[in-house]
Specification:
The chain has 240 residues and is mostly helical. The chain is built from 7 helices and 3 strands, in the order ααβββααααα. Bound molecules: zinc ion.
């Protein structure tokens, strides 16, 4: 029961956060900054200010496709960011640049997140099936063949541990994202790329974007809880 209440709360929260981000980003997209610099120019300036010379900027068509790819050494900017001078474009581009700086400086939590990234996706996809397989083993197999019913429980626990890796990834994501935004805002402020009013909205946009990662973390915590409850069910099933 508690699981369903929590899941509902996070779902409503997620809708509010998405709507807030959408409205803030749309508002910022309509305003051209006073400095008139494009997102590309801001990225170039930030990179060179931080002594980074091996990263290139590329256009990636679509929306919300902005990202920093450490593997390719590229900062991808989306349709609404590439070559644009809006508050949203500058804030988003500077945020992605913040990730490049984290990488360049070898920030520990950034490295940790990067290490987990490829495994986290796989673990997230596999975990549920492993837990379900454990429950199935507990419920069915001892009736068919002579095996220790405890095995099913341990298989389920394996699934929970797999999902815990995914949870750790989301946990690491939060400080990494917040830090990239604060680096972005610091550089924007120091260079005077935003006026005071623009700064206010820029900060709100990045904060709203950061909230989406808090939602992801909460939702992964709920999934983890659910898997623990199911795995626990596998054990009580064995006791019966
Ligand atoms: Zn980011």
């Amino acid at each position: 029961m508690i699981y369903y209440i929590l899941a509902l709360v996070v779902m409503v929260w997620s809708i509010i956060v998405q709507a807030n981000l959408k409205s803030k980003a749309a508002k910022g997209s309509d305003i051209t900054t006073r400095s008139g610099l494009t997102a590309n120019q801001v990225v170039e300036r930030m990179l060179s200010d931080h002594g980074i010379s091996d990263i290139t900027i590329e256009h990636k068509s679509g929306q919300l496709t902005d990202c920093y790819s450490p593997r390719e050494g590229k900062i991808y900017l989306s349709d609404t960011t590439y070559g644009r001078s809006s508050i949203t474009a500058i804030a988003v581009a500077a945020h992605e640049c913040g990730h490049a700086i984290q990488d360049h400086e070898g920030m520990l939590i950034y490295r940790f997140r990067q290490t987990l990234a490829p495994v986290a996706g796989l673990c997230s996809r596999m975990a549920v099936w492993i837990v379900v397989a454990g429950v199935f083993i507990t419920a069915m197999l001892p009736r068919i063949i002579n095996i220790n019913p405890e095995i099913g429980y341990y298989v389920s626990i394996g699934g929970v541990i797999a999902y815990f890796v995914t949870f750790l990834f989301y946990l690491a994501m939060l400080p990494v994202e917040r830090n990239a935004s604060s680096r972005a805002l610091k550089d924007i402020k120091e260079n005077g790329w935003f006026s005071d009013g623009e700064m206010k909205l820029g900060r709100k946009i990045l904060r709203a974007a950061g909230d989406t990662y808090a939602v992801s973390l909460a939702s992964s915590a709920i999934t983890l809880l659910r898997l623990i409850l199911i795995a626990g069910g596998a054990r009580s099933g064995r006791r019966r």
